[in-house]
Amino acid sequence: MTEARPDAVASASLWERDAELAAVTEAIDALRDDSSPSAAGSLLMFTGEAGIGKTALLTETRRIAEKRGCTVWSARSGETVTSVPFNVVRQVLQPALVSLMPEEAREYLGDWYDIAGPALGITEPGERQADPQNVCEGLVVAVSRLAEREWPLVLLIDDVHWADQETLRWLAAFVERLVDLRVLVVVALRPGDVADESAPHLDTITAAALCPAGSLRALTPEATAGLTRATVGTHADDPFCREVWAVTGGNPYETVELLAKVQDSQLEPVEASAADLRALNRSARGNGLVARLESLGIEATRFAWAAAILGTGITVDLVARLATLRHEEAVRCAELLSVARILTEPAPANRHADDGQLEFLHPLIASAVYRSIPDGLRTAMHGIAAQVVTDCGLGAAAASRHLLEVHPDDDEELVEQMRQAAREHLAVGAPEAARRCLERALLEPPLPEVHPHVLYELGCATLLTSPATTIDYLQAALAMPGLEGEVRVDAVYRLSQALLHNNQLEEAIRTVDTEAARLEPGSSRLRLQAVHHMWEGVHAAGEHSLTRSRELTELARTCTGRDNSERALLILRGFDAMTHGENAEEVVELCDRALVNGRLAPGLGWTDTEWGIELLLMLGSSYVYTDRLDRAESLFTEALGVYDSAGWGGGHLALAHAYVGLGHRRRGRLRSAETSLRESLRLAERVGRGLPLYWSATCGLVDTLLARGHAEEAWSIAEQYGFAPPYPSTIVLPDTRCVRGRLLLAVGRTEEGINELEAAEKASAGHGHNTVLAPWAGALARALAAADPRRAAELAATARRQAELFGTDTAIGEALRVAAALETGQRAASLYAQAVSYLEASPCAYEHAAALVEYGIATRSAGELKRGLTLAQACGADGLAARARDVLGATVPTGSR
């Protein structure tokens, strides 16, 4: 048991906490050990019921850390401020931020300043909606960089179960990086009060703890007796001490409060007085605490109520305004409440705002005071608090937390305030807070002409984070009268986009078609027609492929690229022609006509919402598979830079990395491709499995690993990330069935691989195909070469005809490689020589290396093998390089060396 000390009352909650304090001390000492350069950060978690001593442990952790020369940043969550985005992470970082000049903060945070700065309140947000995932990443970087400046650093977060969702998202991401940071994070959690939406983040945080979190135990009777005697006198007898334990259940907080009441009432600590302890305990908690508060007078009660309503940022001046007290009265009330152990001034180390800030002595007291306010009065005080906050110039977002608690009352002004608050929340990357504001605006309710616009804004607010939620709100908005013109067209487009990303492609197409049918000819109708063909163009099934191609051809025939609707149709026609293997020169001509002086037109940029990312990915893909890799890579690299600088770190950034990886893969830079695709997959995991972007990252990574010769690793990735049927309804580049079929062949599952490639063949029946994007014919021909040479030859001939129709050096060279693989002797050598010639002229280095190695093997030419080996090594094609080395190491005719 922890020994009694002179400060026993102040440290009551530390009795019988030797194991926890030892863990704290060990973690702090490990943090400070600069003799170990590989030392990593760590996380400690204290859990338990209310009053069990979690806050006291964090306070003692601060004392120990500061005594050992550590910097300590801390924050406390609150039951009444869970809806305030970034509240807790701002508290954590305030000590560092207030010590930095703006130019210093910008220097430390670098490119992340404009992304994380608005969430931290140190800079104004940009004009675009911030991506919450990138804001979270920016906060992780911000804390990481500031931690390096303040090492050794300890972060303390009390009552993390009440933290806002944005802070929890940051903390969950941050603790996963502790292996690379020398930071000690200590959190206190009350498990029974965890909200459903907080549980996943808290599970991640808990999993990062040094050891499984165990709940703090109540004090034993022996510890309670020792604490009692240390507080009220050594003459306290055993029956009295046992009753103290029985009344409080060994809860440290209740024990301290009860003993304080014993001292205040001058109760003699002997058996004869034990019967009075229960009544005293009731006065120290719940209704008894309320009675004690009321005994201080109506002004002090109003002051405490106002402080509880504010919850955070409590100053005498602000409370005085809310409680309608004169400043002198407010100061007197603050003093009374401090003496009564209800409010206190934070210790200097804990202070996070201006001088004069107050806080409740304990979170339990804050909750009890808040709940003691009569319901009607509490609601009214929140309304007044919203006005006070607004009058102080803190903005609609700050006032919105109070307006969320006000009863609906057909208030047009409140609806507009909540819409403005939502815009402010979106600008800093807090879409959940925006959603709460707009949903509250719906309850008011809005005027009929405003109602569909609020629903539309709700759909836009959730577009980046929850396609399913977006669908519900936009469908409701479109079902109501009042949404007309370009806003309605935009709502239809966004709805179809959400349906697409929710894997409801056919519904997305129907939605666009229905709206287009009700419009008169003009730019709006043309836009929706283009969107229709855009979604049809990404449809993997392709049942109506030929009909769509004819319709697109007709629509694009008269398009000159004079506006973005025409440019979109040109891109769509070019993509359609590319996937079907039509003449590559015509594909490029169509795509070039969609540009303005070789660049994207205004309104068709990567962050422009009128058309979205899909159209531009089609444009870049068309260039990729027509051997115009310079143009494709320029587009995809631009996307990456734009999304990084704009703070779009979720699905958009994941797709940008995937298509940058595609460019690297086609160029033959396989190591760079793998890096980009792994980053894409990491980001896609955060957005959610099963979405089209997830398939793009996984398929591209498997394809790249196969090219590198890492078949087992490719198989492991496929198994881990579910790269297997059923496939998504949207087209994936490269073709999923072809990649899966080649993977199965590579790991020796030949029959399954053949079946997969035959399924790819069936899917393209009735129309042509791009033999580079979907190389099923060549792969199937190789697989059937021994068992069914006749069919293999037919497939090779089909691939060659289709490649020659398409006309790129890569397509023809690859078709010749397949044909050569089915031949022997001089015929094989001649075909390989032709393949090398074509692929040498193409930008695809890996395919060129493969042709050189195969040519060298067929002709037993050391020169060709060495050329192939050098190029394979440069590409990172380990399997191909190993094959070349093996053959070179075997017997080769002297004349060919």
TrEMBL record:
GO molecular function, one term: adenylate cyclase activity
InterPro entries named in the record: AAA_16 (IPR041664), P-loop_NTPase (IPR027417), TPR-like_helical_dom_sf (IPR011990)
Keywords: ATP-binding, Nucleotide-binding
Recorded superkingdom: Bacteria
Orc1-like AAA ATPase domain segment(s): 16-186
GO annotation, cellular component aspect: cytoplasm
One Pfam family of this chain: AAA_16
Name of the protein in its database record: Orc1-like AAA ATPase domain-containing protein
Protein's organism: Streptomyces colonosanans
